[in-house]
TrEMBL record, chain A:
Signal sequence bounds: none
Organism of derivation: Streptantibioticus silvisoli
Gene3D superfamilies: Cytochrome P450 (1.10.630.10)
Lineage of the species this protein comes from: Bacteria, Bacillati, Actinomycetota, Actinomycetes, Kitasatosporales
Protein known as: Cytochrome P450
Transmembrane segments: none
Keyword hit for rRNA processing: no
Similarity comment text for this entry: Belongs to the cytochrome P450 family.
Pfam (any one): p450
TrEMBL record, chain B:
Limits of the 4Fe-4S ferredoxin-type domain: 1-29
Matches recorded under PANTHER family: FERREDOXIN
Assigned keywords, A-Z: 3Fe-4S, Electron transport, Iron, Iron-sulfur, Metal-binding, Transport
Pfam family, one: Fer4_13
Gene Ontology molecular function: 3 iron, 4 sulfur cluster binding; electron transfer activity; iron ion binding
Record lineage: Bacteria, Bacillati, Actinomycetota, Actinomycetes, Kitasatosporales
Protein name (Swiss-Prot/TrEMBL): Ferredoxin
Amino acid sequence: MSTPLTTVHETVPGYPRVRDDYVDPARVLLDLPAISPLTFAGGSVGWLVTGFHEARSVLYDPRFSAERWRGDDTVRPIPRRIRENRGLGPGSFLSMDAPEHDRYRGLLTKFFTVRRMRALEPRIAEIVESCLDDLENAGRPADLVRHFALPVPSLVICEMLGVPYEQRAGFQRASARLLRQNVTEAEFEENFSALIAFVDDTIRAKHAEPGDDLISALVASGELTDTEINGIARLLLVAGHETTMNMLSLGTFTLLRHPDQMARLREDDTLVPLAVEELLRYLSIVNAFPVRVALEDVEVGGILITAGTCVAVSVPAANRDPELVEDPARLDVGRSRSSHLAFGYGIHQCLGQHLARTELAAGYRGLLKRFPDLRLAVAPEDVPMRSDMIIYGAHELPVTW
Amino acid sequence: MKMLVDIPKCIGSGQCALIAPDVFDQDDNGIVVVLREDPQDTPELREAAAVCPAAAIEFAAG
């Protein structure tokens, strides 16, 4: 029998979001026991999970709800709109539980299968090449985020969804602002509304003139209201470029700081898919979530989590747990594939994971091939890191070649 | 070794089809299709089971 609440450590005063040595999880996160009490951004005290097995069991267990409005958050209080509307609105299935979540996800999985993503490979490689041209034409030194890491996933997701890339100003800015940790209520409201309006215009255009794209297919399916499609499209649009963008930039930064690993990839590019998995694990750009709320009393790792309490899973810490891989602090691009949690676990595991894998493999491969002498154009400490954002990465990455 | 795949649990993550494509595929809706009911016990097969986010792939002795 377990003895709940007998070995509880000191309460962590706030989620340790600032990283060590640019990419490592804060030391304190790695020194914590698998589950510790944590004070959340809104002031409530819940639990912080840093152990790999404990993280998997929380993310897998339907007794933990993903409905954000029920609880508190790690680095910023839950915006008023989410609390009052009990979520982000119809279609926003990332923060929904089964069976509501399953209905939306079930309509979308077919667009993201391994086979579909394989069929996209040549087109993604073309997009990578054209962005590499842009980066090269920008001249040395150039910002890899602006000329490569952002446009690659942005172009890909726009094409998939059927959003005109020329109109990217209409969503990139709003999307980026929504992911700030210190976003005010007013800013959240303004940017959220802007995103809804932008997607609304796109959906209207698809009604008038359908294309060979995901939004048109959802419109044509007749299974969803336009409000639901809006929720889905917003989620895919934001998730589709903010994540891959940061993996491309932070992955490049990391390879540049590990020349031995970079050299292995240059010598043998069949290692790239394994390197993608290892970088996903090692960097864990989802910095301070997911958060779940216990719907009833649940025991995890000998701790009793009472109904109504929030549980934050630290993906960076869980992915550096020696229970997951041997010597977790070491970057090893040839490491056999691990069961890392970079894409989450359970029913909410990333829908676009194979798209991300495809983009990252094409991106790293293309970059290494095009620039045999790629290097940072500034000292590592002068790279502005995204410690102020919900998704970690680099704001800019000045490189030369 | 006997493999048991709980298809109703599948969420269509597709990781099994990526890692062990000779044993698993996805149907048009992304749901798992078992290509070999009695597959060889390989590291890839064990890996596919280990990473399944729905814990839908299990093994029984015998």
